[in-house]
Design goal:
The protein is globular, with a radius of gyration of 24 Å. The chain contains four helices and 24 strands. It folds into three domains: about 40 residues, no CATH class; about 190 residues, Oxidoreductase, molybdopterin-binding domain (Sulfite Oxidase, Chain A, domain 2); about 110 residues, Immunoglobulin-like. The structure holds the ligand Nc1nc2c(c(=O)[nH]1)N[C@H]1C(S)=C(S)[C@@H](COP(=O)(O)O)O[C@H]1N2 and molybdenum atom. The ligand Nc1nc2c(c(=O)[nH]1)N[C@H]1C(S)=C(S)[C@@H](COP(=O)(O)O)O[C@H]1N2 binds next to β3.
């Protein structure tokens, strides 16, 4: 971070305060001729429970992503998992008082569970699950799409523990016409209007009834960090992470596609048929994003690494493919003209990311890029360039590339 340094002749309080944008409380004690450091950068906005190396995109609401080389761990540490909030954190409350209510026109009854009832009544399961924001990679779209300008790091794969949503739904009882569920959380709308719901999305019943779809209270064996949904959240692996409702307080069982805020319109939806860049697409021509597309990251080395001529380089990373498994993982050092197979592991469980590694030799000194390309079980591969433009900039699964210099 570069420090902004300007020469201050007169250390008047007003001038100094103008310099840092807020009153300097002990300004009168600052020795004459000495200037305040006076530099604040979004990168050092401290998010409770989070590593300060996350890249902060916003502080109200809080949005922060993880630089790819910090995603090198097989299981993403809670402190490094990205944060995407649409509203403000819920008020602090006693988790002992927390309840989750299941209701809705297609639920047989309305039931409220306390956290301890959930924990005692149902079997516990732990899965590693990929959560990726539908807008991850948005910053690459041209013309630009409005929204958080995520680069590569609105993704993570942590270990989540909780009960199966399906066990809870079955306990409540489902009517024959149940087709969808929707969630509600306790976060607060940016307007602070208690009547307004920040976000209430959902998933088809089929996805809700999958074994890996969890109502979770633990992330990596500990309480979920506050910003990631403490004390309870949904975790829906492989689908846009916007379906994984945080601060979960209510689930509605619906007889139609859930219609909460950010289910309709242009939110988390893409044109049903691909469109030319800049096209205005009517709401009725937009389709809800379901399984996320195949994607991968190079997590070692960091882009910009410099290596010695003649040395081979051990590269590694992860690959994932929404509801599917990744079947092939390749890298290229010649801008995609030729590809080398990597060693790709199986996922530890369905919907977890898969680790890959490969040793690469560079033919001579110079600048190179390593490009990484995953292919899913159905044969769909990551594109080398940014894929189909869409109004809100979702689903960019272009190949990740890093720069390497061989000296
Ligand atoms: N209640 C609530 N749930 C939410 C959100 C939110 O703003 N409020 N954001 C969603 C979006 S858009 C994403 S990408 C994920 C992010 O989860 P994370 O912050 O744990 O990474 O949470 C989802 N669940
Ligand atoms: Mo998201």
């Amino acid at each position: 971070m570069s420090k902004r340094r300007t020469f201050i002749k007169k250390s008047s309080l007003a001038l100094l305060s103008g310099f840092v944008g807020t009153p300097i409380i002990f300004a009168k004690n600052l020795p004459k001729g000495m200037e305040p450091l006076g530099y604040f950068d979004d990168d050092v906005f401290i998010i409770p429970g989070k590593d300060e190396r996350l890249t902060v995109l916003n502080d109200r609401p809080i949005n922060a992503e993880t630089p790819p080389h910090l995603l090198d761990e097989e299981v993403t540490s809670s402190s490094l998992h990205f944060v995407r909030n649409n509203g403000l954190l819920p008020k602090k409350s006693d988790p002992k008082q927390w309840t989750l209510t299941i209701e809705g026109e297609s639920a047989e009854r309305s039931v409220s569970y306390s956290l301890s009832e959930l924990k005692n009544k149902f079997d516990h399961y732990t899965y590693q699950l990929v959560l990726e924001c539908g807008g991850n990679g948005r910053s690459e779209f041209n013309p630009p799409a409005k929204g958080n300008q995520w680069t590569l790091g609105a993704v993570g794969c942590s270990k989540w523990t909780g009960v199966r949503l399906k066990d809870v739904l079955n306990d409540v009882g489902l009517k024959n016409d149940a087709v969808y569920i929707g969630y509600y959380g306790k976060d607060i709308h940016l307007s602070q209007n208690p009547e307004k719901v920040v976000i209430s999305r959902g998933i088809p019943l089929k996805k809700a009834m999958e074994e890996e779809t969890l109502i979770a209270w633990e992330m990596n064996g500990e309480d979920i960090p506050e910003v990631n949904g403490f004390p309870l959240r949904l975790v829906v692996g492989g689908w846009p992470a916007s379906t994984s409702g945080k601060w979960l307080s209510r689930i509605v069982v619906r007889n139609k596609v859930h219609d909460g805020p950010k289910m309709g319109g242009q939110s988390y939806r893409v044109p049903c048929e691909s469109v030319a860049p800049n096209t205005k697409v009517e709401d009725e021509d937009m389709c809800i994003i379901e399984s996320m597309p195949v994607k991968s990251l190079i997590t070692y080395p960091k882009s910009g690494a410099i290596i010695r001529e003649g040395k081979s380089l051990e590269l590694r990373g992860h690959a994932w493919a929404g509801d599917l498994e990744v079947s092939k993982m390749e890298v290229s050092i010649d801008f995609g003209a030729t590809w080398n197979q990597t060693v790709l592991q199986k996922p530890v469980n369905r919907l977890a990311w898969q680790h890959w590694k490969v040793s690469v030799q560079f033919p001579q000194k110079g600048y190179y890029e390593v490009w990484a390309k995953a292919t899913d079980l159905k044969g769909a591969a990551q594109p080398m360039v940014v894929p189909g433009w869409n109004p809100r900039g979702y689903l960019n699964n272009a190949c990740h590339r890093i720069a390497i210099k061989v000296l």
